[in-house]
User: What shape does this take?
Amino acid sequence: MNPTRKHRLLLILLLVAAAAIAATLVAMALQRNVAYLYTPSEVLNGEAGKHARFRLGGMVQAGSFQRAAGSMQAHFLVDDGDATLPVVYTGILPDLFREKQAVIATGRMQGDVFIAENVLAKHDETYMPKEVADKMGAAHRKHDVPTTPVTITTDSVR
Amino acid sequence: MLPELGQIALILALLIAVLQAALPLVGAYRQADMLMAIARPAAYVQLSLVALAFAILTYAFVAQDFSLRYVAQNSNSLLPLIYRYTAVWGAHEGSLLLWALILALWTSAVAFFSQKLPHDVIARVLGVMGIIGIGFLAFLIFTSNPFERLLPAAAEGRDLNPLLQDPGMIIHPPMLYLGYVGFAVPFAFAIAALLEPASSRSGLMQNWLRWTRPWTNVAWGFLTLGIALGSWWAYYELGWGGWWFWDPVENASFMPWLAGTALLHSQAVTEKRGSFAGWTLLLAIAAFSLSLLGTFLVRSGVITSVHAFASDPTRGLFILIFLGIVIGGSLLLYALRAPDGDNSATSGKPFSPMSRETLLLANNLLLMAACAMVLLGTLYPLLADALGLGKISVGPPYFSLLFLLLIAPLVLLLPFGPLTRWQREDVSRPLALLIPWAGLAIGIGIATFFLAPQGSWKAAAGVAAAAWIAAGTARFVWSRFATKNSGFTAEMFGMTLAHAGIAVFVIGALLTEALSHQRELALAPGQTVELGRYAFRFEGVSRHVGPNFEADRGAVTVFHDNAVVTMLHPEKRTYASGGQSMTEAAIDPGIFRDVYVALGEPLGLPAGSGRATPGADTWAVRVHVKPFVRWIWMGALLMALGGFVTATDRRFRNRTRNNEETV
Assistant: This one.
């Protein structure tokens, strides 16, 4: 074997080893940090049971938001049109959090209540997260929520 | 009438782009000077037309022409004048027009500064840039026309998204796009090099690379600035006090940056030593492809992101097809015509495993591995969805852990790079130079571990790594000045600045992560919260009226060791146009720490039951103390400066001329 070839073989072996280590690490890290999205009816059907930590997507039900005076703890119901799930979140909610708006909360179930660590709303008020829209399928039509930006027409502009 | 003129200008620009793409490429193939000569004037005309369209759209915003759908959607009669200018790129159509304008600017700059290059080279480069121009102008005209009329005209516009009504948003998109689109220049050069007949390719490649390097450096500098501005904006505007979220949209701009950083380094090797020629071409293709992919991710809305603004999947399809053509086409070309690694004429000068070439190869592998890791994490939710594995998201710990693992060896090796000779080096020489500094860095790290308020390995590792990079870089500067007649070029100065920037960034990033304090709590007027050595007294909230919003403006007195530092006024704004509310954090900036206060919501009464008496409410308040957070952006600024300074190196201009003279 000539020196160039030897050199090249060594390099290739090193690369393969590095790639194998990298692939293992990546797979492990991915597995640990992936959070699945479920809707309330899926959670109630027990589909989310296998994941301790997951994301809950749906609409904040009208009239369900409650907060004891002077407390940071917020209670609300997330609704997918077929089922609702109570959510508790302690902390400051995002600016665009509102009743009758789409929301994605990350957290885990404790009994019958979803304890959220993190609540996500969008930058843009006319936009509904695509994955929530997909998930909710027909359900979101019951709420009359646009999945694409509201097309502006003369009457929708004040 | 004017908007129609803008529309016509865009269509003409598209036609010119078609000419600019087709004729010079055919001309270069046939060696027909007449056809090749079209490239330059076409570039200038295209720029004038796109600039005209852009100016007309800007005028429509300033003059509040609500008969344009795009203006009606993104402006409002109450919008302050400065934001009417920036609203032009506040949404999809306008930001694409900005993309096209910046592409035209880069193309014209290439046309203007390339007088010394051979005709056929510049004809090919401008032709390739014309093809990219066709893609974006067609995209604008057919799917995202900013000049679409709204008849009858709206009486009032819907307003610019309040989050974008901010000084940071004025320059962030142009900077980012200058970077993104700037990678089109090395890309066009790579494609032009591959189109070159095999006989003249290898010799010319090194010369062209010398010519493209400053362009890559400038584009990379702008991209660095753009990302840093975006991070800074997210920090103060989103009200969470975070500076990087590993969000898909952020990743979309970070991937071309990583590939671009690898490209900068491999271009240097190929230009100076002739090695890695094929790899450099591939990186140039990768950097620009990732820029396009970033545009696709941001514009199509296929991935849930906190930064996702209204987006439209049908437009995504167009970009996806364009992306397929550009990436597929350039990779196919690469596969057919890439330089042959076994041919000594194209593979450059040989080097031993211990040489600067090897170190730069390691740099490239680590950066591209980091890039691939980010790409996988960003696209994994899409893949999983396509394969029916469910709707998932990949959490930030995936990115931060793997990024740290991949970047740590890079930081470790960085000081060796400049001190190691090309081609062959004894391991002992750079090691001997650096060992004292490694000792110093470790000592500083240990000292930090015990001195830092909450002794943590992160703080210690951050300071040690920064000291190691800074000392190693200083050692390089010293050895240059200690050796007689060695000189210190702009390229070296740029590199020193950029590497020093990494040291500053590492300090900022790791100390902010390790030493930040944060609390979220309910505060009644007069109540105090303590955070480390700082204390915050909530004074209450008063009503404040702005040009197009009303705000609840809080007053918070900040104490440090019982002495008053400042009074901060965070706001909760409600915009008149859409009723959208927005947090405006108040920050007391400092070199060594930021004090950050954001208002949540009034907690005095249940939501929806009306407003309580002003000033009497209990409010949710978020307070942060963030040590060294400014260093993150100062470091990025230094890196960007390094890129710009490197681009001014005389060598890039002189040798090109010399080579022409000898020819």
About this structure: Residues 166-413 of chain B form one domain.
